Amino acid sequence: MTSRYRPNEPTSPVPLDVLSLLMRSEEARVAEIVRQLSGGQRAALAVYCFARAHMRSLGLQIARHCEGRTLVAVGGPMGQTMADQVESGEAFDVGPYQHGTRKVTLARFAA
Q1: Is 37 within 8 Å of 14 (Cβ atoms)?
Q2: Which domain holds residue 70?
Q3: Is the pLDDT confidence value at 100 over 70?
Q4: How many domains does the chain have?
Q5: For residue 79, is it within any domain?
Q6: What is the pTM of this model?
Q7: Could you say which of 1, 4, 57, 111 is the most buried, measured as most Cβ atoms within 10 Å of its Cβ?
Q8: Would the pLDDT of 9 be above 90?
């Protein structure tokens, strides 16, 4: 039986004060902090951040300082996706442009 007070999410691979600092820091400071971690810790932190929508860009910043094979070993398919995105330089949130789609407005249907 599991405790009802046990969190349902995995815990951060770094202390929460370090994670908080990373979230508030510029990219150069993130690189400086991340370089102090081991390769496995870096990859685990990158995967941890990438798995959360509000920290996805931070996850990719951290992934830039990881080896691709370490990301894949730690994150599986998600790690492979991160490694591919880092290698291509493609933004994580850019989707294909859809031609011909019109925005729906309420005013058009209110008559």
Answers
A1: yes
A2: 16-92
A3: no
A4: 1
A5: yes
A6: 0.74
A7: 57
A8: no
User: Max alpha carbon distance in the chain (Å)?
Assistant: 63
> Does residue 104 fall inside a structural domain?
no
Structural tokens at position 89: 């330089």
Residue found by looking up tokens 């860009």 in the block: 57
Is 109 a member of any domain? no
Cβ contact 50:77 at 8 Å: no
In a domain, 34, yes or no: yes
Mean pLDDT of 28-57: 94
Burial of 97 (C-beta count, 10 Å sphere; 0-12/13-18/19+): exposed
Give the model's pLDDT for residue 109: 56
Q: Residues 6 or more apart from 20 whose CB is under 8 A from it? A: none
Is the pLDDT at 65 greater than 70, yes or no? yes
Within 13 Å of residue 51, how many CA atoms lie on the same side as its CB? 17
